[in-house]
């Protein structure tokens, strides 16, 4: 069983709660779909934990922004990216600083993994989409507004593709249709004859109006959506005194949006 996490966004409380939840289960390894940093108050601590615990970590658009440059970011997100870069740069330990930059610089954009069965299609993991792995958003509304976009995305993988990026968990099927975790009673039964594009949601900044951290367990026959409560008030207390981080980046955690 694999745990798939995404969009931690420098939220240590949420990440620690999710790692504790994972540790209590029979998980072989953790795949992180990116955006370890950006928005939140503890980027260095999160980089360190993810480096230790995830066996694969992909490049998200916020990781890219801190490493290279922000692309299409709003004012608040850009300020957060520059503040995050400064936190890494002003780390007192040379060893930590170079380890974090090296880790960020080596992140893959796309990961493909077989499931051990020779006849089964490999599973694809990206931050955004199978077409533009770092930056493309796949929204539930695309089912109604942009069916051809979805078809173009489904054409780019053979069976299952896991994504993050929108912070909205759920399952897209080729019909096209979108199912929220609630609609699926938190379990998607894997159908060998149908493709599915699965958004694992966000650990550190959920946006589906559920303020609990989100991740999934990928079992041979099913994908299980997990929600983990964490102390978001403690995170808000850390965001408010940092002028470069908009207060809203704290308050939105309370509402999960
Ligand atoms: Zn994100």
Architecture overview:
The chain is α/β, with parallel strands linked by helices. The chain has one domain (2-255): Purple Acid Phosphatase, chain A, domain 2 (4-Layer Sandwich), CATH 3.60.21. It is 33% helix and 19% strand. The chain contains nine helices and twelve strands. The strands form two sheets. It has a six-stranded mixed beta sheet with strand order 3-2-1-11-12-9. The protein has a six-stranded mixed beta sheet with strand order 4-5-6-10-7-8, with no helix packed on it. Helix 3 (61-67) crosses helix 4 and helix 8 (232-239) packs antiparallel against helix 9 (247-255). The protein binds zinc ion. Zinc ion binds at residues 7, 9, 35, 60, 62, 165, 167.
Helix/strand layout:
Layout: E1 2-5, H1 12-23, E2 29-32, H2 43-53, E3 56-57, H3 61-67, H4 75-89, H5 94-105, E4 110-113, E5 123-126, H6 142-145, H7 147-154, E6 160-163, E7 170-173, E8 177-179, E9 187-189, E10 196-199, E11 213-218, E12 222-228, H8 232-239, H9 247-255
Parallel strand pairs: 1-2, 2-3, 5-6, 6-10
Antiparallel strand pairs: 1-11, 4-5, 7-8, 7-10, 9-12, 11-12
The chain binds zinc ion.
Zinc ion is lined by residues 7, 9, 35, 60, 62, 165, 167.
Strand order of the largest sheet: 3-2-1-11-12-9
The CATH topology name reads: Purple Acid Phosphatase, chain A, domain 2
Largest sheet: 6 strands, mixed
Described by the principal axes of the CA atoms, the overall outline is globular
Helix content: 25-40%
Output mean pLDDT.
Answer: 96
What is the count of DSSP helices, taking H or I runs of 4+ residues? 9
What Rg is obtained from the alpha carbons, in whole angstroms? 17 Å
SS content category: alpha/beta
**Beginning-to-end CA distance, first to last residue:** 29 Å
Ligand inventory reads: zinc ion
Q: Do you know the CATH architecture?
A: 4-Layer Sandwich
Write the H/E string, N to C. EHEHEHHHEEHHEEEEEEEHH
Fraction of residues in β-strands: 15-25%
CATH class: Alpha Beta
GO cellular component, one term: cytoplasm
Protein name: Calcineurin-like phosphoesterase domain-containing protein
Organism: marine sediment metagenome
GO molecular function: phosphatase activity
């Amino acid at each position: 069983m694999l745990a798939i996490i995404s969009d931690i966004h420098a939220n240590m409380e949420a990440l620690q709660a999710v790692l504790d939840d994972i540790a209590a289960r029979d998980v072989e390894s953790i795949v992180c779909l990116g955006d370890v940093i950006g928005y939140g108050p503890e980027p260095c601590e999160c980089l360190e934990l993810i480096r230790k615990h995830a066996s694969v970590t992909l490049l998200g658009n916020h990781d890219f922004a801190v490493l290279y440059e922000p692309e299409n970011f709003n004012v608040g997100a850009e300020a957060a990216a520059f503040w995050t870069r400064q936190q890494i740069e002003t780390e007192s330990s040379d060893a930590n600083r170079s380890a974090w930059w090296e880790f960020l610089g080596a992140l893959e954009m796309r990961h493909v993994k077989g499931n051990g069965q020779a006849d089964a299609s490999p599973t694809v993991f990206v931050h955004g989409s199978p077409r533009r792995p770092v930056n493309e958003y796949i929204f539930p509304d695309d089912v109604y507004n942009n069916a051809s976009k979805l078809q173009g995305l489904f054409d780019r993988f053979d069976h299952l593709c896991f994504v993050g990026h929108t912070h909205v968990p759920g399952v897209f099927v080729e019909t096209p249709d979108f199912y929220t975790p609630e609609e699926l009673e938190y379990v998607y039964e894997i159908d060998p004859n149908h493709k599915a594009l699965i958004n694992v949601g966000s650990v550190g900044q959920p946006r589906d109006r559920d303020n609990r951290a989100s991740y999934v367990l990928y079992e041979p026959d099913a994908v299980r959506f997990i929600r983990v409560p964490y102390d978001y008030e403690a995170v808000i207390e850390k965001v408010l005194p940092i002028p470069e981080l908009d207060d809203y980046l704290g308050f939105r955690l309370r509402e999960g949006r």
